[in-house]
Design goal:
Length: about 290
């Protein structure tokens, strides 16, 4: 029997996800002043975007809607935790789910899980690094700041681009579509940190026109049919806690993974909790 939520999400199976994202990209990068200002005003009004936090508050100064969407914050808009062994929140948003990785499965929503190995594109060696580890999934809505920052200082080891669908990642869809985060297009950044391996997984969604990282630039598009991998064995960049590591050109979700017995989330980090970039969300239990 279909639930109301299932009926709402059925059309997403039929939509041409990537074509819609290409069209959205053209619209969001359009520099027509009338169009981009109207679009920005509607989003600010509809989602109650706090422009007082933006380094640029005058919408006329944004060259496109995407320029507004990936806007920089004022230097004092967020404070990063500076206590030893603290894990900082990598984004503004809301907790989708958080917890332990059990039996190779990550909790998505009531009655729905997806496997770590599917999430990382079938790489069993990579999945093993996070066996019985911990995860936090953070959803970024249209009102949120859309740059992503480091929760810990880390040295980049590998980046993987995994092609896939572009289902919405809002609450209704995550509660209805099986294995959503292991089906959507995503970019995985693997870092070595004082808590051991840490994966930051940037998950695409419908209308997300691209995903970028600071060391590579735009990773997607293009969207291709095969997994792409970049190794950083030589001259690997090290990013300090709080440093920008990437951004979504339109909203989506970031998933952070840690290994077994390496971290502990704070007690009140629960589903639907609003979180802010830089605040403490957990602690390191052991160092390598």
């Amino acid at each position: 029997m279909f639930t109301k939520k299932t009926l709402i999400t059925i059309p997403q199976y039929l939509l041409p996800h990537h074509l819609l994202s290409i069209l959205m990209s053209k619209l969001t990068h359009c520099e027509n002043t009338v169009w981009k200002n109207l679009f920005i005003k509607q989003i600010v009004k509809c989602y109650k975007v706090n422009m007082n936090e933006s380094a640029t508050s005058d919408i006329n100064k944004f060259k496109s809607f995407n320029d507004f969407f990936t806007r920089e914050l004022k230097a004092d808009a967020r404070t990063f935790t500076n206590q030893k062994n603290d894990i900082a929140c990598p984004a503004d948003g809301a907790i989708s789910q958080v917890g332990k990785i059990e039996g190779g499965q990550i909790f998505q929503a009531k009655g729905k899980h997806y496997s770590t190995i599917d999430l990382v594109g079938g790489d069993s060696d990579l999945a093993k690094l996070f066996e019985n580890g911990s995860f936090a999934t953070i959803y970024l809505s249209p009102k949120d700041y859309h740059r992503l920052h480091m929760p810990l200082t880390g040295t980049l080891k590998e980046m993987i681009h995994i092609p896939g669908r572009l289902f919405s990642v809002n609450k209704t869809t995550t509660e209805s579509v099986d294995r959503l985060f292991a089906r959507n297009e995503r970019v995985i950044a693997l870092f070595e940190t004082e808590a051991g391996p840490m994966a930051m997984i940037l998950v695409g969604a419908i209308f997300v026109s691209s995903i970028e990282t600071v060391w590579h630039g735009v990773v997607t598009p293009p969207t291709i049919s095969k997994i792409r991998t970049w190794k950083y064995d030589n001259n690997a960049p090290t990013l300090r806690i709080g440093a920008e590591m990437g951004r979504f050109n339109m909203g989506s979700t970031i998933i952070v993974l840690f290994g077994k017995d390496k971290t502990l989330w704070i007690n009140n980090l629960i589903a639907d909790k609003t979180v802010k970039l830089g605040e403490k969300i957990g602690s390191i239990l052991t160092t390598i």
